[in-house]
Specification:
The structure holds 2 protein chains of 2 kinds. By secondary structure, chain A is mainly α. Chain A is built from 12 helices and no strands. Chain A is globular and about 55 Å long. By secondary structure, chain B is of the alpha/beta class. Chain B is built from 10 helices and 18 strands. In chain B, a hairpin with a 2-residue loop joins strand 8 and strand 9. In chain B, helix 5 crosses helix 6. The chains are: A mainly alpha, B alpha/beta. The interface between A and B is medium-sized, with 28 and 33 residues.
């Protein structure tokens, strides 16, 4: 398993070109093309801002205003996470031709799914930056150093789950359908449209068990809240967990690898 | 002795088959029944390869032949490393490129140019290497004008050509080919063959899976015949191909005789010797009338059976009954007949029809001016063909006993079939004895093979 894992590094050229292909192919044929990567999060932001500030105003405590910005800090990384997982559920089956007919390292496929969504996440950041400037939010440069760490933890965690889901979906096709609903539940169990403080005291422990909670709070702490990053202990713990998730996901993937060519 | 390019030792591959309801097993049901682990275990297995061993020396072109489902492609996939054998070892020395499916991994939405890069890198090249070979690839695929169009706009031929061009330019040490020569037109096929020849010259190893025995004979240094996952023969291509052909003929023989007995059984159900007059669908027996159009090919049996054809045997040159004959073989068609009472008016007829139902030849004893005198009891009629001059194909026989005016005693229409094999792939329904003559200014490289020469 570790040998195979080491091989991953050798595939970086392949991974890079496949991510580029994914990005190119995604908006091929649309008029606005690449701009959709910016427009999509912007529209999402407008929809939620409209719902929570115009239709249902006054629901939010002072500390999470402007609400649109608060929400955006959580939804961007969440979109990366959830689209990576739902794409990786399909990625081995869609790439069946490669696995069956070409000597092709299958683990590249879920990695590509996660990474191309990471690129979309990065493309959403300029929009976030624009809003930060618009609202004149103070940003602490030292605190911003945490940002790559949070991204790295999320990358490990997401990739581990992507391995697990892509490998299991080959055998149980209905994971695809199950996953859609699971992700919706997961979204609402993560403090993205609400803040941790808004959750009832006696349910917070449940939210604390959710790894995505700590990622979302970390993003909010660094990008939204003024003051030092107070959540770093949780983040470090999650970092350790993510390494385990990554290794476990890869372990399952590696064990099932031989069955892909026959089952896909 | 140097290390072989491909070394396969005692390889077995078992495919797992899941029972129907298990195939559709879902995670939910697996969890509910607690059978998650069990569902991941095979419950029925199908051996695709059973202890296959062979070695391909460096620079050798190695052909693998065998029927559909004999494990050829599985073997190739195992050698390519796409699937893993259950037991045994495979060692391949050098970079492999497998032409198993062409253009696998092309993305339809993006251009041929970008796809060449992606496909090349997938097959193990670096970006620089692809860059260097790019023009050559495009030229080989004959796609200069379309290289910037999205691949989804390509015709299937263009798609295949591009896939082939990329795969062949990976410049592998070991090239695995699975029946992919059937891409594009004749010109392109020739180009592919040229490319393979170039590979051979450069001392690369090729393993080729094909149904084209011709290709194996002409092109390969060694051949392997796989049958039901086992090695049936290995070695000199001509010898392997010959034994394969013999085996195929034997199977065809069995199939033909099986089909024939099925047809006989079907027509016997219609009306047996008692003359009681059962009915065949379009052959009314009571009236003893033949179908309206005698040249229309509908199989069946009719007649009064006063004079009955009780058995028919086709005998080859060796005197053994058979259904597959070589062109030019001496063949005899033997009919056992029985007259239920002495008859003075009788004619025996014979006809050959090809697979399209076209009458290639027909005759009878009356046409050949044999005047009937008397027949009584059991007898034997033989139609002897000194030299079977039919083109390759499947033929059916008409055999009949009737009165001079055509009133049928026993008419067997298209109930017997045989196959003719020929080294010459000439066509048609009639092969006149012939030879070619050329004036000295016209020369040919070698003898034109079998035939009248």
């Amino acid at each position: 398993m570790l040998q195979n894992l080491a091989k991953l590094f050798r595939y970086r050229g392949l991974i890079r070109i496949l991510v580029a292909r994914d990005l190119k192919a995604r908006y091929r044929g649309s008029v606005l093309g690449f701009f959709w990567s910016f427009i999509n999060p912007l529209l999402l932001l407008l929809v939620y801002s409209f719902v929570f500030t115009v239709i249902m105003p006054g629901m939010h405590p002072e500390e999470i205003r402007p609400y649109g910005l608060f929400f955006f800090c959580g939804i961007l990384p969440w979109t990366w996470f959830s689209s990576s997982l739902s794409e990786s559920a399909n990625v081995l089956i869609a790439g069946g031709n490669l696995i069956k007919k070409v000597l092709f390292p299958a683990e590249v496929l879920p990695i590509v799914a996660v990474l191309s969504n990471l690129v979309h996440f990065f493309l959403g950041l300029p929009i976030l930056a624009a809003f930060l400037i618009y609202y004149r939010r103070p940003l602490d440069p030292v605190e911003l150093l945490w940002f790559p760490v949070i991204v790295l933890v999320q990358l490990l965690f997401t990739t581990g789950l992507a391995f697990l889901i892509s490998a299991l979906t080959v055998h149980f096709r209905d994971i695809k359908d199950l996953l859609g609903n699971l992700l919706t539940l997961w979204f609402f169990s993560t403090p993205i449209i609400y803040s941790m403080q808004m959750a009832p005291e006696n349910y917070r422990w449940v939210l604390n068990l959710n790894p995505m909670t700590h990622l979302a709070i970390s993003y909010q702490e660094v990008l939204f809240h003024v003051g030092p990053h107070g959540h770093w202990k949780w983040l470090m713990a999650l970092g350790v967990l993510s390494v385990f998730v990554f290794l476990a996901g890869y372990f399952v993937f590696d064990r099932l690898r031989d069955s892909f060519a026959e089952e896909v | 002795m140097s290390i072989p390019a491909i070394d396969v030792v005692n390889v077995s591959k078992v495919y797992r088959r899941f029972a129907r309801q298990k195939q559709f097993a879902t995670l939910k049901s697996a969890l509910l029944k607690g059978s998650l682990i069990r569902d991941l275990q095979p419950d029925e297995t199908f051996p695709a390869l059973r202890g296959v061993s062979f070695q391909v020396p460096k620079g050798c072109t190695y052909g693998v032949i065998g029927r559909n489902g004999s494990g050829k492609s599985t073997l190739l996939k195992c050698v390519a490393g796409i699937s893993r054998p259950n037991s045994g070892t495979i060692t391949v020395d050098g970079r492999i490129s497998a032409l198993i499916e062409l253009g696998a991994g092309f993305h339809p939405e993006i251009s041929g140019r970008e796809n060449i890069f992606i496909n090349g890198i997938m097959l193990g090249l670096t970006k620089k290497e692809v860059q260097k070979r790019f023009d050559e690839i495009v030229e080989f695929a004959e796609l200069q004008d379309f290289i910037d169009a999205p691949v989804k706009t390509y015709s299937s031929g263009m798609y295949m050509r591009l896939g082939f061009a990329v795969a062949i330019h990976v410049d592998p040490e070991v090239l695995l080919i699975d029946e992919v020569l059937a891409v594009g037109d004749q010109g392109f096929t020739l180009k592919c063959l040229d490319k393979f020849a170039e590979f051979r010259r450069r001392n690369k190893t090729i393993q080729l899976v094909t149904h084209s025995l011709d290709l194996v004979e002409k092109f390969c240094d060694q051949a392997l015949w796989l049958d039901k996952g086992q090695t049936k023969a290995e070695g000199e291509p001509k010898r392997v191909v010959a034994s394969y052909i013999i085996d195929v003929e034997r199977t065809e023989e069995q199939e033909l005789s099986k089909a024939e007995s099925a047809r006989l059984a079907a027509s016997a159900k219609g009306g047996t010797g008692d003359g009681a007059g059962g009915k065949l669908p379009d052959n009314p027996v009571e009236s003893g009338e033949a179908p309206a159009d005698m040249f229309k090919a509908t199989e069946g049996r009719w007649g009064t059976r006063e004079l009955e054809i009780t058995g028919v045997t086709l005998l080859g040159e060796d005197g053994q009954p058979g259904h597959v004959f070589q062109y030019g073989e001496a063949v005899r068609v033997k009919m056992n007949v029985r007259a239920h009472h002495p008859l003075k008016d009788f004619v025996f007829g014979f006809g050959i029809f090809n697979a399209d139902g076209v009458c290639c030849y027909g005759t009878n004893t009356n046409l050949e001016e044999l005047r009937p005198d008397e027949i009584s009891g059991e007898g034997e009629v033989t139609f002897a063909i000194d030299s079977l001059k039919l083109v390759e194909g499947t033929y059916r026989l008409d055999l009949a006993a009737h009165k001079l005016d055509g009133y049928p005693y026993d008419y067997h229409r298209l109930l017997y079939s045989f196959r003719v094999k020929s080294r010459t792939k000439d066509v048609g329904i009639y092969r006149p004895d012939h030879r070619w003559h050329f004036s000295p200014s016209i020369r040919f490289k070698s003898g034109s093979g079998p035939g009248e020469g």
